[in-house]
Design a protein that fits this description.
Strand 10 and strand 11 form a beta hairpin. Helix 6 runs parallel beside helix 7. The protein contains 17 helices and 14 strands. It is an alpha/beta fold and about 575 residues long.
Amino acid sequence: MTALVLGVAALVVGVLALAGVWRGGDGEATAGYAPDAKGRPPVVVLILDEFPTDDLLRPDGEIDARRFPNFARLASISTWFPNAFTVYDSTFKAVPAILDARLPRKNSKPDVRSHQPSVYHLMHRLGYEIHKVESATAVCPPRICKGSRARRPSVLDRLKGSGRPARLHKWIGSIRRRERPGFYLNHSLLPHEPWIYLPSGHPDRPYGEDPIEGINTKASFADTDLSQHNHMRHLLQVGYTDHELGRLLGRLERTRLLKRSLLVVVADHGYASDIGVPSRRFISDSNIDEVGPVPLFIKAPEQMRGRVDESFVRNIDVVPTIGDMLGRSIWWPHDGDSVFSPASEDRDELVITTRDFKREIRIGADELAERRAANRARWARLFGTSAYSERTYGDPWASVYRIGPNKRVLGRRLARLDLGSSISTALHASTYSYQALAVACEPLLGAGSAIVGLTFDASQAWPSYDWMGVAKAGLESANRYLARYLGPKGIRVNLVSAGPLRTIAAKSIPGFERFEQAWVDRSPLGWSLTDQEPAARTCLALLSDWFPSTTGEIVHADGGFHAVGA
């Protein structure tokens, strides 16, 4: 009798499986292993964060392929939508809107409570094996994504340390040929701040160690120099994002899935560079041209030739497009359209709801194109293009580092340089400022106090250092005079001459790498280009009372390089 019951149950289960549908405990239809799943292509969706499209573009509107070779490569095998835009200016509503193709709603939550069904239900019905990383949402139901959370994770925690690259690399590593087709989705918090990564793939400093405290907060938004510095760091992290995109494309190639795959790369929203504003994320009439446009690339299965589609498509059109390409319509009420539909082709303006849902910001195609072109021209004047940078400095990124009051000084031949007031500015910043700071602080310093500055050995001429070397020589002379005048008051004044370190300042000097390796090879104690601790410890020692009779000195923290010959 038991065997008979089990046999009947197995028969019923078999019929349901052939139908491709199971009934979930909540009464909603959920997918079993679809019979035709094996023939479906892998689907890969990478959602980037806080990424204006024009970061990637030259003044002519084309992708700057020398700075962003992997985005250029992706465009060469996919359909690129340069006029794609977001529907909201905040991750917590923009990403869920991408996942369920519905316009953001007031009071909705970035988790499964407010976003069912979604792309996860679609892919589950089609028999896909789901591998996902949700960095700011929790939209996939636990019954579909086993072990997934029901509430969103802390974004601040996910921005810390090396978590962003680690999660991305683990997800990329999960992409492989499988018995069932894979649906791979990753919302990566790149190129979102904190901006600490470089186009080389390396960080320029540990997480949380900004060169100036609060450098990217509201208090700094009125400071043009700090704002330009932040824009520079943002662009460098876009370069890093391109580096990581290359890792993804490489993985798809090695697993022989690139041609077969349906690949989507999109972003949640952009970011503005306005000066003197309370926020650079909140959408407004003045920044819609930066916050609105986002990258969107869609590679169809078997597509390996690029095309450009200038339609005004939206990031909420991604899921309907996936359904369109897989031959399955979206069955739940939604606001998105396939990017290849007449509705997408006919759209002629960008429309985004404000953060408070009180109104819509609109801009027509012609005005948007004019404003975006002006932005690209302005940024090219500030940061250069890869063509200008390579022609002038021999590297596509070198000109990006050359912002600030002394940018014309760096990398110029001393004998051929006629910079007039720029030389005065360099000497003022690198030499006079030391004396000015010491004089300003003198009333606060008593006997036993110490002043410590940083120099780079100015006793010899270094490749490419030129006028900065002259300024450092002035700094070292100023150090001796300060020691002479402050010594009677018991105030010690010393400099630390560190070896080369890969800092933002160092990256702005073309040819810096020419003596980096020499330092590593010749220093008797060895030298790390990324370890700042030896120089820091030397500064702390000189500031302490362990050198009570040392003043006017230059203490070398360079692994002994200064003491040896070739």
